[in-house]
Each structure stands twice: as C-alpha cells, then as structure tokens.
Description:
This protein is of the alpha/beta class and 165 residues long. It has helices at residues 19-24, 48-59, 74-82, 96-105, 119-129, 144-164; strands at 9-11, 29-32, 63-67, 85-87, 112-116, 132-136.
Amino acid sequence: MSFFPMPDYKFKEILQVTPQFLKEEGIGCLLLDLDNTISPYGTSGPTERVLKWVQNMKDGGITLFIVSNSRSSRPAIFANAMGIEYIDRAKKPLTDGVERAIMRTGATKEGTALAGDQIFTDVLASKRAGIRSILVEPIKLSNPFFVARYIIELPFRRERKRRDD
Length: 165
Ligand SMILES: [Mg+2]
C-alpha cells in the first residue's frame, strides 16, 4: 500500500499552505514542484503573490527547495528569484532528485514533504522516497495532454476527497 500514490494532504493551491499548518504536522522542509504548482508552464518568473508566500514561509522557519523535472532554465530562474535552492531534471517519480534535495537541506525525511500537482510524478515520488506529499490542483491545464492526464488522475483525486469528508 505504501506505493499507492495517495497524497497525505490536498490543497487547492500551493499559496494556501501555511507555515502554521506545516509546523503542526511536524514539517520543516517543503520541497516544491515548479510547473503548474508554483507557476504555469511558460512563465518567466514568480508572481508577487508567490514571492510574498515564499517570504512568509521563510519567516515561519520553513525551508523551501524546488525539485523539478524540467530540463529548461526555469527552475534556476525561479529558485534565484525566490532565494531558494533547486534541483532540475529530477526525474520524478524516481527518488534520486528528491533524496538529493533532502540531503542538501539537512532535513529529515520525517520532517519533509513534497508539494506538487501530479499524482504519478509528485505524489508517487514522495511515497517512494518515504516523505509526505501535498497535492495541489494544477494551476493551468493549458493543452490537451495536461487535460487527459488530469482526467486519468481524477479517481485518485476523488478518493482522497472522500477520505477527507
Ligand atoms: Mg507540475
């Protein structure tokens, strides 16, 4: 069952996750997917809202770290703008990138969660790495492939919802 990609927590958007919530759950390190979690594909940098959220997280003592599958320069650009570290080409759902990120932060697995918008990359990587997972809704389903993938994920998303009710 531990490999069943069931998220531990669900939020509509990453900006709803607060330092208070993470602290109550014993999470001091939050690994972040980039595309469709922090920002839609194709954008050139974080919004003001995202930057405010990052500052609030830092003020609350939360370590943030981008773990992205992207092969573009976007993870570096976003991480630089947000003042945090990053790993690109992470190959989620493989765990190597996630494990390297945790090592670089010095956090424990118990105290780490990964937030992302995809069940079969982000949530599955979290499960396999033995950390908790936070699933968010994709910011923007901008092309048919994303829509198709989202539809495939729907039963998993609903299952989580039912358990929460
Ligand atoms: Mg994503």
